[in-house]
Design a protein that fits this description.
Strand order of the largest sheet: 3-2-1-4-5-7-6
Shape: globular
Largest sheet: 7 strands, mixed
Structural class: alpha/beta
Number of domains: 1
Strand content: 25-35%
Low-confidence stretches: 180-186
Radius of gyration: 15 Å
CATH superfamily: Vaccinia Virus protein VP39
Length: 186
């Protein structure tokens, strides 16, 4: 794993081999960030990285100057590694939270411009997680939730999904609250 762009471009991320992670591939991550930089000013973004694992996505946001980054993972080894790597790279805007993702989503009072979610492929709570994000309005206006999942997992039926990108057996689905409906209600 490596940081693709920004202040720490080229930095190799070497998590311990015993961590239970399935990192986002460099190709998928580069595709994701190509989309994001054309739709967001990353330096003005508040980011939430759920199931952060080895921290590849969080550290990429840090390198690209995201304003605030919150990484959440329940595994102590993952949380410790991301925290240490953020400190080593001087990403003071990155906060590591060791805890359950669903509990975090139910309890946070913060909102975000980008929420990236990369649960284990066998996880069965994709739709519940997306509903919590959208129903609790954890996205700022115009914000996106991006869910990385195995291509056999179908999320097409969720009305707030507006795009998907396939990378082999891996898919990224993009969600946003429907702003036009909210504006009509006001």
């Amino acid at each position: 794993m490596r940081i693709i762009s920004g202040s720490r471009k080229g930095h190799i991320i070497r998590p311990p081999k015993n961590l239970p992670i399935r990192p986002t591939t460099d190709i998928a991550k580069e595709s994701l960030f190509n989309i994001l930089v054309h739709n967001f000013d990353l330096e003005e973004c508040d980011v939430l990285d759920l199931f952060s694992g080895g921290g590849s996505v969080s550290l990429e946001f840090g390198s690209r100057g995201a304003r605030n980054i919150t990484s959440v993972d329940k595994h102590p080894g993952c949380a410790g590694f991301v925290k240490a790597e953020a400190k080593r790279l001087e990403f003071d805007q990155l906060q590591m939270v060791r805890g359950d993702v669903m509990q975090f989503l139910r309890n946070t009072g913060d909102t975000y411009d980008v929420i990236f979610c990369d649960p284990p492929y066998a996880w069965e709570k994709y739709e519940e997680m997306i509903r919590i994000i959208l129903d609790r309005e954890l996205l700022n206006p115009g914000g996106w939730a991006i869910v990385e999942h195995h291509s056999v997992t179908k999320l097409d039926h969720i009305p707030e999904r507006f795009d998907k990108r396939n990378h082999g057996q891996n898919t990224m689905s993009f969600f946003s609250n429907k702003l036009e409906e909210k504006e009509e209600e006001e």
